[in-house]
Amino acid sequence: MKKILTLIGLTLLLSACTEKVELRSSADYHDYLVVDALLTDRATDTQTVTLSNTVSYFHDEAVPYVKGASVSINGEPFTEKENGIYTGPEGFHGEVGGSYHLRIVLKDGTVHEADATMPEPGFEIDEVDYAYAGNKALGLDSLWTLAIWGRDRATTSYYCVRDGVNGHFIPFQFNEVMDDKYFNGNEIKGFPLTTLYQSAWLYKQYGECYKYLETGDVITLEAYTLDKGYYDFLFSLFMSSFSIPIFSPQPANAPTNLSGDHVLGWFAACPVTSAEVTVDDPHRPYYKRMIPGEGLPFPDK
User: Of 93, 129, 241, 292, which one's alpha carbon is 20 to 30 angstroms from that of 283?
Assistant: First the structure.
């Protein structure tokens, strides 16, 4: 059975190759360093490492970013562009099969390090298409299904899937983390991978990524292939989002691949596959054609 985890409740934002994580914990973990480092295989992405400290469950406070650190990946220095946000040189990116070493030296001389190897893409997305799935379903103003065409590797793989409209991507906490049990090792023909939805409240909160689709809008779907460790890290954060602070383990108990004491987070290297489609009719019905043979029902284009 495919595991799909809608990461509601996590304060994560993935933008291009940038991932920001806000970990809330009990006061005992208030001084933990949080490292958010995601290296992609796209030269057009700005590779980013974000450093912050944990914030308490019991206080409404801004994220305390960590300034003045020395950050590098495989010896390439990252520059602090904003407080606590460090970016790599233009064009710097990872390669499939490559091994990468993250080194962080804080102002007080504390060193944290981590290693990551970029896995092969779990599947390649050749094409994405959409279908109108209903109006005011489940309290939403509108809902669309997004399906993919492509191929999947024979080995079990793990993904983070996100979608966007006109270059505006939904916040990471509303993305999906999944395995490939439904299509492992097969050609993918019209598989309904995820949904795109719109509501007035979400549009007000998050902007254009939740707009009502119109003719000419461009939908983009991206899939990040995760190694098992990063998948388990995201899973643990998902589980922690449902805990009660007094009675349950806090996110500070999430796994980490960073060395040293009082540090949380994960350094990951992920290949990305993506495809986009231009909307020609936002109300195309869901059942319009049946793909011959083993395919699934999905509309004509």
Answer: 292
